[in-house]
């Protein structure tokens, strides 16, 4: 079944691949009209930096990704069965035995938990691949599970789409198994490689081959990407980290980022490339929490064969304010729309361990407000167990988590009411007095991220009274008032901005918690 699927899907996407221009795309320029990154000069004044930042706009794929708000990670592989978090590459493939694999159960649980996209660890640092690849023996095809004919990626992709979720894939740049086989970090030169590299007995007949510069291992990754992106249907997120293997300190593999990015763009043009990629960035911690003021426009530099990198450190407390733009200027190549993804696991580990329990609903809710409520997207890991199912405890917790969020923001009291918009903000009249203790705001990010400061006010006793104040808004900002405030008229007033402000959402809620 897996082979026939390959032949069908490869043929179906051949015409798309054939339309891609040969060679590497100019990421600095992007597509015509792309304003997602603007070059910076060492001579730019602070005012010029702010002006440029105000002109940066997200791409269509970034806008679509930001709207997801809540996405899922599924760490699954040989580590699930060995109890490790980082495998060795020497695992016996037969250890992988998810005899009760039920990816429909994954999809149902994630859908019911409010998730809209799921990312599978197709290859983790150990190099074990969850589909029958032509380019490695360290895969499900070498396991006795399902007689060597198992394909987790195929089952996962089909199930997610069946239940209305988008599909993401994580392919680790690190690869312990390929290091042991002399491919990873072998010191090979970057030379022109033909992708796909047809293997012995390969019956594929692509309409177009891609010629890209790569090392031996870079070519291995390109062939892996080609299989994943042409044989399993549309992919909406390709997730890379920057990990190196647990290898001797004098060994290093300089990753062929430019070639990897180019192939993804050619084969999956709608896919967001994260978090070591040009579309999305890692927030800088694994706690699931964004900064209090999280900017989507931040200073970046190009590093190591086109890698999009922070001009400041990844864990800098301030990545995008006026002061940050000036501080980063000496090492900045571009100001770029590079929004934050907040990853965290529902359990202490990333892979399933039977002695661990999921986080409480209170903890998950705090994480949600600290990510989705701070102009970021939550990426919550829910690891399948050794049976190949999401543990019942985790499934229940996901339902409880969604119910809690819905109780925190039960009904937008401002939906459909009379609204007045001015250059300074938005005023709403609820028609009657209501208690409010949650405020949700969003800019129309098609026009960039502009707000640097704002205040929310309620009309009480003949005057505007401050209810809350904060800095950035971006795609989503949620404020929890310390106590309910009762008023009929409310307004958000912008106190600082980089350019013309367009408020797309001004929601008022009374929590039922």
What can you tell me about this protein's structure?
25% of the residues lie in helices and 27% in strands. The chain contains 12 helices and 20 strands. Helix 5 packs parallel to helix 6 (152-162), helix 8 packs parallel to helix 9 (257-267) and helix 11 crosses helix 12 (392-408). The strands form 4 sheets. It has an 8-stranded parallel beta sheet with strand order 8-7-4-3-2-14-13-9, with helices on both faces. Strands 15, 16, 17, 18, 19 and 20 form a 6-stranded antiparallel beta sheet that branches. Strands 1-12-10-11 form a 4-stranded antiparallel beta sheet. The protein has helices at residues 2-19, 46-55, 60-66, 79-82, 103-112, 152-162, 176-180, 216-231, 257-267, 322-328, 361-371, 392-408; strands at 37-39, 70-74, 117-123, 166-171, 191-195, 210-214, 237-240, 272-275, 281-282, 297-303, 307-310, 334-337, 340-345, 376-381, 418-422, 425-443, 451-460, 463-470, 477-497, 503-509. Helix 11 links the parallel strand 13 (340-345) and strand 14 (376-381). It is of the alpha/beta class and 513 residues long.
């Amino acid at each position: 079944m897996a082979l026939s699927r390959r032949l069908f899907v490869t043929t179906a996407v051949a015409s798309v691949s054939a339309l891609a221009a040969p060679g590497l795309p100019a990421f600095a320029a992007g597509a015509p009209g792309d304003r997602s990154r603007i070059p910076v000069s060492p001579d730019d004044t602070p005012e010029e930096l702010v002006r440029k930042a105000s002109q940066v706009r997200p791409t269509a794929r970034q806008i679509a990704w930001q709207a997801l708000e809540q996405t899922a990670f599924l760490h699954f592989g040989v580590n699930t069965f060995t109890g490790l978090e980082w495998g060795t590459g020497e695992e016996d493939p037969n250890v992988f035995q998810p005899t009760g694999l039920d990816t429909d159960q994954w999809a149902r649980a994630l859908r019911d938990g409010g998730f809209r996209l799921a990312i599978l660890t197709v290859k983790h640092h150990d190099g074990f691949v969850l589909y029958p690849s032509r380019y490695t023996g360290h895969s499900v095809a070498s396991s006795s599970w399902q007689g060597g004919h198992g394909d987790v990626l195929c089952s996962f992709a089909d199930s997610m789409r069946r239940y209305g979720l988008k599909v993401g894939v994580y392919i680790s740049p690190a690869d312990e198994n390929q290091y042991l086989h002399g491919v990873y970090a072998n010191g090979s030169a970057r030379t022109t490689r033909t992708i796909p590299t047809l293997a012995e007995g390969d019956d594929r007949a692509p309409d177009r081959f891609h010629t890209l510069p790569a090392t031996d291992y870079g070519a291995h990754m390109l062939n892996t990407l080609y299989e994943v992106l042409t044989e399993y249907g549309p992919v909406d997120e390709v997730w890379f980290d920057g990990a190196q293997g647990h290898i001797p300190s004098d060994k290093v593999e300089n990753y062929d980022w430019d070639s990897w990015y180019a192939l993804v763009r050619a084969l999956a043009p709608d896919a967001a490339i994260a978090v070591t990629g040009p579309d999305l960035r890692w927030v800088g911690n694994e706690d699931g929490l964004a900064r209090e003021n999280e900017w989507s426009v931040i200073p970046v530099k190009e590093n190591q064969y086109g890698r999009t990198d922070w001009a400041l450190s990844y864990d800098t407390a301030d990545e995008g304010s006026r002061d940050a733009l000036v501080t980063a200027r000496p090492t900045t190549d571009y100001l770029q729309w590079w929004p934050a993804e907040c990853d965290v696991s529902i359990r202490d580990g990333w892979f399933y361990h039977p002695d661990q329990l999921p986080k409480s609903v209170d903890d998950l809710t705090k994480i949600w407000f600290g990510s989705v409520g701070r102009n970021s997207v939550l990426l919550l890991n829910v690891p399948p167990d050794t049976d190949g199912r999401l543990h019942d405890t985790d499934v229940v917790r996901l339902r409880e988590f969604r119910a809690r969020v819905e109780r925190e923001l039960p009904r937008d009291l401002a939906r459909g009411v009379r609204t007045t918009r001015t250059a300074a903000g938005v005023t709403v009249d609820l028609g009657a007095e209501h208690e409010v203790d949650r405020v949700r705001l969003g800019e129309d990010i098609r026009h960039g991220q502009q707000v640097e400061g704002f205040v929310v006010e309620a009309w009480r006793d003949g005057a505007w009274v401050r209810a809350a104040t904060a800095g950035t808004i971006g795609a989503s900002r949620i404020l929890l008032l310390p106590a309910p405030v009762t008023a009929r008229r409310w307004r958000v007033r912008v106190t600082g901005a980089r350019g013309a402000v367009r408020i797309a959402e001004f929601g008022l809620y009374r929590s039922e918690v």
